[in-house]
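Today's session is about reading a structure prediction critically. Students often jump straight to the picture, but the first step is always the sequence itself: look for stretches that repeat, for charged clusters, for runs of hydrophobic residues. Only then move on to the predicted structure, which in these notes is written as discrete structure tokens rather than atom positions. Here is the chain we will use throughout the hour.
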Amino acid sequence: MGYMGFGMRKEDYKRKPKEALTRYKEVHGNDYVEIDHDPNAPQLSREEVLNKSKVRSLFEWKGFLMLKIIALLIISFVLLIKLLS
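Below is the predicted structure for this chain, in token form.
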């Protein structure tokens, strides 16, 4: 009969899925804690939440621009000295 690829064998497509997170539920239970939200908190849309992220990327940091300029100046200075000597 020849090779039947993965998923074509009966033991693959008749397999039952594992119970997800049973060990976690046994230890911690199925209950979840309700979070009390501040009623005075501003109601932001999804786009506003994404734009007001507390973590700014490295490239948005103004100090990173200074580091790039300093590194470029050092590299150009070293290359200039090598060309003149």
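Discussion point for the tutorial: Helices lie at 10-13, 22-28, 46-51, 62-84.
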